[in-house]
Each structure stands twice: as C-alpha cells, then as structure tokens.
Amino acid sequence: MNKPNINIQDGFLFQSLKDGRAMTVELVTGKRIDGRIRRFDRFAVVIEAQGREVLVYKHAIATIASASPEV
pLDDT at position 71, please? Predict the structure, then answer.
C-alpha cells in the first residue's frame, strides 16, 4: 500500500495564501521581500510587495516566514 506524499511546502504556502498573512521572503542573495503571497506552483511564488506583484523562483528562496508584528 502506498503512503500519500506529504508536501509541507504546499501546505505552508496555501495556509499563508488563505490567511492573507504578511510574509517575509529571504532570497539566497540575502535580499528580503516583505509582502503577501498571491499565487504559487511547483517552481515559483508570486508575492505582492509595495503594490507590485513579484515572481520569485523557488530555487532562489532561502527562507519564508510570517512577517514579525510591527512594534
């Protein structure tokens, strides 16, 4: 019997998309993008940042986290 594939990445991105949470995406170059996830697929994530939609390839992403609350 085959075990179903568990895809943590898709679950995390889908929940962030559904909740409309502000996210911080850090690229492998060290650049940070703060915004909301609008779409994603196997290869890329579309992030709305500063009123623009930015397409980021997943291989260029180091980390994705919920944006910290403003103090």
Answer: 46
Cα–Cα distance, 48 to 41 (Å, whole number): 15
In this structure, the number of other CB atoms found within 10 A of the CB of residue 40 comes to: 19
Query: Distance between CA atoms of 60 and 58, rounded to whole angstroms?
Result: 5
Q: Tell me which of 3.10.20.340, 1.20.140.10, 3.30.1330.10, 2.30.30.100 is the CATH number of domain 24-71.
A: 2.30.30.100
The model's pLDDT over 31-54, given as tens digits with 9 standing for 90+, comes to 999 999 999 999 999 999 999 999
Query: How many angstroms from the chain centroid is the CA of residue 59?
Result: 12
Q: Is the pTM of this model over 0.85?
A: no
**Rounded distance, CA 21 to CA 43, Å?**
21
pLDDT exceeds cutoff 90 at 70: no
